[in-house]
Amino acid sequence: MATITIVGAGMMGSAMCFPASDNRHEIRLVGTPYDRAVIDRIKADGYHPKLQLALPNGVRGYQIEELPAALEGCDLLVSGVPSFGIDWFAEAVLSAIPDSLKVLSLTKGLEMEADGALLPISQAYARKVAAGRKLSINSIGGPCISTELCARQHTTVALCGDEPETLAWIKSLLATPYYHINLTTDVAGIECAVALKNAYAVGVSLAIGLADTQGVPLCNPQASLFGQAVREMLALTRMLGGHTDAVIYATSDLYVTINGGRNRKLGELLGQGDTYQEAMRKLSGVTLESISIITRAAEYVRRREQKGDNCRRLFPLLMHLDEIINQGAQVNIPWDAFGRH
Amino acid sequence: MATITIVGAGMMGSAMCFPASDNRHEIRLVGTPYDRAVIDRIKADGYHPKLQLALPNGVRGYQIEELPAALEGCDLLVSGVPSFGIDWFAEAVLSAIPDSLKVLSLTKGLEMEADGALLPISQAYARKVAAGRKLSINSIGGPCISTELCARQHTTVALCGDEPETLAWIKSLLATPYYHINLTTDVAGIECAVALKNAYAVGVSLAIGLADTQGVPLCNPQASLFGQAVREMLALTRMLGGHTDAVIYATSDLYVTINGGRNRKLGELLGQGDTYQEAMRKLSGVTLESISIITRAAEYVRRREQKGDNCRRLFPLLMHLDEIINQGAQVNIPWDAFGRH
């Protein structure tokens, strides 16, 4: 039995309580400043109001000011903060732990550095903490809908990091008969895959919106967009130093992300003819990680182009998504540009 | 304007009349012995009873005994026969043409040779015709639902063959503003991808059947199966000498094949608990290319294993599908075996 401290009581961080509890660990679920009401309720009766279910045995809620107590004697620190919370996590949490405490990040995203480099979040943390620190930050990616993890449905994810022994140890803590964990040192590949799939789920869903408008299924256009999404994810993953096999997680996560949720809804509304502003109004201003991924990845491509890398031609779908979101363009899918390499 | 002779008046062969007609070619659609009634109707009033629409301008129907007239002066021969018809096509059609007539095959499948080798159909033809012949057999793969091609919806496919100039010429005949053709010399990769996706569509759909039974969506299990399907397709494509990038067509074609159709239905019925025999009874004995692909690919893996290649561990999903179909096994997905490499 180990003690696992999870910071971030959103859907994904909280869902991790289930495999952790089934392995009989002590779990300390610490809310961010945004999770105050959630933690109050968990403290009162163990019910998670966003997941809409009772948390399992062995979980205790902590408010953020109780972080020192939640960290005391803990074996593994898990970050369940969303991508816009990583600066806060570095400052408020990573600064309070010793280098010896292993960290597992569930956050999906890509950070852009001042020099235009695009970094997986687990690597970006190294630049956000004090110089000279040697933190072990590992991460999990792959298709995992949090509510299905809570329901103990079979789920296969990739756990990545630089140290194979640490990965094996984290797997021993969290793997269950339904939560299947594969290990890889391909950090760039896995983090890139899981970040990009949100962007491209919007892209494929454009055809779902077009189909709504035309009253026909449009399977071929959807598949054409899916194929171009895979082509661009492969190209970007390779440019960022990831391995081709990360496409296994990129595609399966893309598949499940198109199946439902807010990124699909955004693509569908855009495909139906809404401008980005109209679509976001209908989505009542939800925060979509796809928007920052599209914006950053497109900016990365433009900067590489400025430096003489003729790579823009490889990303017609990404650049069109960026035009729609950041330049007010209407949907006009560049079908003929698909397939260039 | 060219003259294009299409042999096989099934869905896919006949659908090719649309881009060919939009490019103003003369099109001769020749029925196999199974297409007699279809050709009779086309001769009478140009209506295709299986596609349920009128064929476009420039298409004339021919019965198989009129093949010599249909081949006279033709520039490109297209094969639209299903995979179980390729021996017939080699004997009845390829034997009647000069080596100089370029061939385009639309057939999806993998042929097993006596020595246990698994060959893409366009390469298998070389062993079915008289020794010493130098036929140029090219093929098209990728996600393309025939009825949507007839409706002129955007579709992106890969045209593969050994001669880049021939590929460019065939593309010039068939590409339209909605039918987008990418060229590649990766014959093994593309043919393997489009054949295997039928097999794995059954595999992913097992979770759709399980979900029906449980009354919940099971997105994570579906995505886990999708990821394993991609992993196995990549491994088998590499073993057969294909390029990794064929995964672009394998995944997008898998995506659209799971969306509907008979392979999905088979997987769904099996996932609901039917035996293979019960499922096939409900499907009233339709011919499914997935069955022969699963059977042949599993046999290929077993033979490689017998020859000392420890590759069986890479294909737990394929081997389970083979157990279900050929050994009467009940569905019992080997989740823990997924991810091995």
Query: Which series of helices and strands of chain A comes N to C?
Result: EHHEHEEEHEHEEEHEHEHEHHHHHHH
Number of domains of chain A: 2
Largest sheet of chain A: 8 strands, mixed
Spatially, the strands of the biggest sheet of chain A line up as 5-2-1-6-7-10-11-12
Distance between the termini of chain A: 51 Å
What's the CATH superfamily of the largest domain in chain A, by name?
NAD(P)-binding Rossmann-like Domain
Mind telling me the CATH class of the largest domain in chain A? Alpha Beta
Shape of chain A: globular
What kind of assembly state do the chains in view correspond to? homodimer
Give the chain pair forming the largest contact, with residue counts: A-B, 48 and 48 residues
Describe the structure.
Two copies of one chain form a homodimer. Chain A has 341 residues and is an alpha/beta fold. The first copy, chain A, folds into two domains: 3-185, NAD(P)-binding Rossmann-like Domain (Rossmann fold); 188-337, Orthogonal Bundle (N-(1-d-carboxylethyl)-l-norvaline Dehydrogenase, domain 2), CATH 1.10.1040. Chain A is built from 15 helices and twelve strands. Chain A has helices at 11-15, 17-22, 36-45, 67-71, 86-92, 121-128, 146-150, 164-174, 187-214, 219-239, 247-258, 262-271, 276-282, 289-306, 316-326; strands at residues 3-7, 26-30, 47-48, 53-54, 59-62, 76-79, 102-105, 110-112, 118-120, 137-141, 155-160, 179-184. An eight-stranded mixed sheet of chain A has the order 5-2-1-6-7-10-11-12, with helices on both faces. In chain A, strands 3-4 form a two-stranded antiparallel ribbon. Chain A has a two-stranded antiparallel sheet with strand order 8-9. In chain A, helix 9 (187-214) packs antiparallel against helix 10 (219-239) and helix 14 (289-306) crosses helix 15 (316-326). The N and C termini of chain A lie far apart (51 Å). At the A-B interface, helix 10 and helix 11 of A face helix 10 and helix 11 of B.
